[in-house]
């Protein structure tokens, strides 16, 4: 029975299928909304799903000189880590129990897709991929300051590194400040404007995925879609008030919609920053918000 | 046809990703390809996206006469694209050489070197026609009638 339940959690909800459905929905909203804001009609509802299916049906080309097993493994590791992360987050409908230290595990799992992207850029031996990998690694140093500090401030306030305790914590000044720091890091984590530095189109092509195609590329797309869901899940669990039953499910969907709309609004109204400026933004403004949250958590 | 193959076939029709290569065009056709993804014509409605890497693309869009210098580059890019793939030749130049016909520096027509699935005539063709050409190529991909897919099927037999 337990193994059946675990299989359900990994494959259906909150794991692979459910997260993929939500992820593709978010990606479609992002594409549709940015199209509407630019005065275009935008793609139909099923577009991200059909893009994914089409890539699955293509023949894979591995660049000469690339490490074939690593080339194939990276996207699957990225998907696997994201699914693992999704399963441990106590979103509505997830029956898995929160355990001490799961916050730390979640933070590491959130870092896995980034690491896989960086390695993918180098493994593909493309010069564009390498530039993108370098930028992504630098960016991750930038946005992780406010991101990690926000989560640590919340954990300090709650006095534990359990997601369940963070979820149950009442709303206060620390929550507000840490939420701001966390929100600042979201566009960079999703590589959307103005922080679309690692995948800067018209500049370095598709970035780290330059040489990826067919099934491995499809897996990276899937991983990106689920990464969006995982990030929104983390925000929902750590910062949104905890509810029960239908209220929780509604709040979950609502939080996701608000976040994706915010990300798209920022993306379509800004232009890409340089690495230095983005880095300075995170270490100054993200740092201020995170430090304030940390100080209040320490004193209060 | 099993359900997965059927789904992939529909997906190929709904998601044509293009990669454009200028093989010696006067830039007229390239200027007409830009508006295909702009607000007025918005090719994204049919899932058409411009990709920055030939490895992500399903459809190679070639503009201009095939010059002797660009011949090898076009053939390399075509070879880099993962199958199944289609080729759309935009403008009169890839077909006939157009005003450059008879020049010692041009080579062609394009289908002497890579198999062309859809010819889009015009000098330059309008964006609607280019989108229609891409949609037709996507249709060919879905039904397995592109030159690339037919060659693969013949080899398998």
Structure notes:
The complex is a heterodimer of chains A (300) and B (157). Chain A is built from eleven helices and no strands. Chain A has 300 residues and is an all-alpha fold. Chain A has one domain. Chain B has one domain: Rossmann fold. In chain B, strands 2-1-3-4-5 form a five-stranded parallel beta sheet. Chain B is an alpha/beta fold and 157 residues long.
Could you give a short description of this structure?
The complex is a heterodimer of chains A (300) and B (157). By secondary structure, chain A is mainly α.
Residues in helices of chain A, as a percent range: over 70%
What is the N-to-C order of secondary-structure elements of chain B (H for helix, E for strand)?
HEHEEHEHEHH
From the N-terminal CA to the C-terminal CA of chain B, the straight-line distance is 18 Å
What coarse outline of chain B follows from CA principal-axis ratios?
Answer: globular
Count of individual helical segments of chain A: 11
Largest sheet of chain A: none
CATH class of chain B equals: Alpha Beta
**Which word captures the global form of chain A?**
globular
Rg over alpha carbons of chain B: 15 Å
Biggest protein-protein contact in the assembly: A-B, 34 and 26 residues
* Tally of alpha and pi helices of chain B: 6
Extract low-pLDDT stretches of chain B: none
* Category from helices, strands and their pairing of chain A: mainly alpha
Lateral strand order in the biggest sheet of chain B: 2-1-3-4-5
Distance between the first and last residues' Cα of chain A: 44 Å
* Main sheet characteristics of chain B: 5 strands, parallel
Q: Helix content range of the residues of chain B, please?
A: 25-40%
Give the overall average pLDDT of chain B. 91
Q: For the residues shown, what is the average pLDDT of chain A?
A: 89
SSE layout:
The complex is a heterodimer of chains A (300) and B (157).
Chain A: H1 2-11, H2 16-37, H3 47-56, H4 68-88, H5 102-123, H6 127-158, H7 163-168, H8 173-189, H9 214-239, H10 246-269, H11 275-299
Helix pairs in contact in A: 2-9, 2-10, 3-9, 4-5, 4-9, 5-6, 6-8, 6-11, 8-11, 9-10
Chain B: H1 3-14, E1 17-22, H2 28-33, E2 49-50, E3 59-63, H3 71-80, E4 86-90, H4 93-96, E5 118-120, H5 127-142, H6 147-156
Parallel strand pairs in B: 1-2, 1-3, 3-4, 4-5
Helix pairs in contact in B: 1-5
């Amino acid at each position: 029975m337990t193994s059946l339940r675990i299989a359900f959690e990994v494959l259906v909800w909150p794991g692979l299928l459910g997260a993929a459905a939500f992820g593709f929905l978010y990606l479609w909203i992002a594409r549709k909304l940015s199209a509407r804001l630019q005065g275009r009609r935008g793609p139909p509802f099923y577009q991200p799903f059909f893009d994914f299916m089409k890539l699955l049906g293509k023949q894979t080309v591995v660049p000469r000189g690339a490490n074939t097993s690593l080339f194939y493994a990276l996207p699957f590791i990225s998907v696997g880590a994201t699914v693992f992360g999704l399963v441990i987050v106590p979103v509505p409908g997830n029956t898995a129990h929160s355990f001490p230290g799961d916050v730390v595990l979640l933070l590491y799992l959130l870092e896995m897709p980034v690491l896989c992207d960086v390695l993918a850029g180098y493994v593909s031996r493309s010069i564009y991929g390498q530039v993108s990998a370098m930028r992504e690694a630098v960016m991750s140093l930038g946005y992780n300051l406010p991101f990690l500090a926000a989560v640590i401030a919340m954990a300090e306030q709650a006095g534990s590194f359990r997601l369940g305790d963070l979820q149950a914590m009442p709303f206060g000044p620390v929550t507000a400040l840490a939420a701001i720091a966390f929100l600042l890091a979201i566009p960079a984590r999703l590589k959307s404007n103005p922080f679309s530095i690692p995948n800067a189109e018209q500049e370095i092509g598709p970035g780290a995925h330059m040489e990826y195609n067919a099934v491995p590329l499809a897996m990276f797309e899937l991983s990106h879609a689920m990464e969006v869901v995982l990030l929104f899940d983390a925000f929902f669990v750590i910062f949104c008030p905890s509810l029960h039953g239908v209220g929780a499910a509604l709040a979950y969907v609502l939080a996701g919609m608000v976040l994706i709309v915010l990300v798209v609004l920022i993306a379509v109204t800004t232009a890409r920053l340089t690495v230095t400026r983005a880095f300075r933004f995170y270490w100054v403004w993200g740092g201020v918000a995170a430090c304030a949250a940390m100080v209040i958590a320490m004193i209060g | 046809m099993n359900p997965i193959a059927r789904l992939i076939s529909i997906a190929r029709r709904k998601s044509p990703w293009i990669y454009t290569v200028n093989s010696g065009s006067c830039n007229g056709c390239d200027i007409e390809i830009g508006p295909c993804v702009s607000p007025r014509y918005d090719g994204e409605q049919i899932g058409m996206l411009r990709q920055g890497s030939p490895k992500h693309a399903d459809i190679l869009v070639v503009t201009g006469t095939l010059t002797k210098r660009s011949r090898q580059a076009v053939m390399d890019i075509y070879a880099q694209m993962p199958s199944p793939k289609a080729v759309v030749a935009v403008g009169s130049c890839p077909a006939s050489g157009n005003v450059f016909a008879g020049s010692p520096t041009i080579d062609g027509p394009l289908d002497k070197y890579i198999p062309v699935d859809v010819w889009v005539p015009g000098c330059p063709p309008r964006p609607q026609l280019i989108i229609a050409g891409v949609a037709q190529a996507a249709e060919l991909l879905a039904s397995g009638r592109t030159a690339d897919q037919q060659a693969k099927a013949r080899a398998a037999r």
